[in-house]
Amino acid sequence: MYRILIVEDDEIIARSLKKHLESWDYDVVCVEDFSDIMKEFAGAAPQLVLMDIKLPFYNGYHWCSRIREMSKVPVIFVSSASDNMNIVMAVNMGGDDFIAKPFDLDVLTAKIQALLRRTYDFAGQNTVLEHRGALLNLGDATLTCGETRVDLTKNELKILQVLMENKEKIVSRDTLMTKLWESDSFVDENTLSVNVGRLRKKLDAAGLPDFILTKKGIGYHIG
């Protein structure tokens, strides 16, 4: 089931879209906090975004450009501001399509279906994980916190992925080593400690102190 994130501050329109798309078996999430749409984007991990242009705090162009910094997820602008300048701006800011309000729900659905087919029939999904405002992009091995973007090694990415996917739990050192090397063969534990140490330094520099915590004798967990 594909998940669609609706970024629309008109509650009537948002509810109408949600109800209609759910009837097509889509998993639909509506943004509630318009001051931090990236946090909601990361939490929903959608396969497609429906984006209005006129929004509280920052407009849809701003949020589309922020999404494009870390994800190739398709974005369809849905707006009554449908003059040529806004359509061109939407495309230039990374939008994949533009639908003018008022619109026909069946036409919108057809466009969504076509865009999802083009995107995911030929490419894997690009997942983003979030914790404490930090966004981990599994597609390009980067961590973004505010305006800071950190490039990660393959091992650092795997460590963060496992910890963030299990952020309510303590992850054992054995589990991490198995994930790192995709093998049950013996690996020197010191190598894991070195990788975690280097990763912590990058996190500290990005303004994320104590992001990875140690549970002595057991493993690590996200703080």
Automatic annotation (TrEMBL):
Family matches, as SMART domains: REC, Trans_reg_C
UniProt cross-references to PROSITE patterns, sorted A to Z: OMPR_PHOB (PS51755), RESPONSE_REGULATORY (PS50110)
UniProt record, GO biological process: regulation of DNA-templated transcription
Modification 4-aspartylphosphate, positions: 52
Chain ranges of the Response regulatory domain: 3-116
Residue stretches making up the OmpR/PhoB-type domain: 126-223
Residues annotated to bind DNA: 126-223
Molecular function terms, GO-annotated: phosphorelay response regulator activity; transcription cis-regulatory region binding
Entry keywords, A to Z: DNA-binding, Phosphoprotein, Transcription, Transcription regulation
Matching Gene3D superfamilies: 3.40.50.2300, Winged helix-like DNA-binding domain superfamily/Winged helix DNA-binding domain
SUPFAM superfamilies cross-referenced by the UniProt entry: CheY-like
InterPro entries named among the record's database cross-references: CheY-like_superfamily (IPR011006), OmpR/PhoB-type_DNA-bd (IPR001867), Sig_transdc_resp-reg_receiver (IPR001789), WalR-like (IPR039420), WH-like_DNA-bd_sf (IPR036388)
One Pfam family from the record: Response_reg
UniProt GO cellular component terms: cytosol; protein-DNA complex
UniProt xrefs under PANTHER family: REGULATOR OF RPOS (PTHR48111), STAGE 0 SPORULATION PROTEIN A HOMOLOG (PTHR48111:SF43)
Functional note: May play the central regulatory role in sporulation. It may be an element of the effector pathway responsible for the activation of sporulation genes in response to nutritional stress. Spo0A may act in concert with spo0H (a sigma factor) to control the expression of some genes that are critical to the sporulation process.
Name the UniProt record assigns to this protein: Stage 0 sporulation protein A homolog
Lineage of origin: Bacteria, Bacillati, Bacillota, Clostridia, Lachnospirales
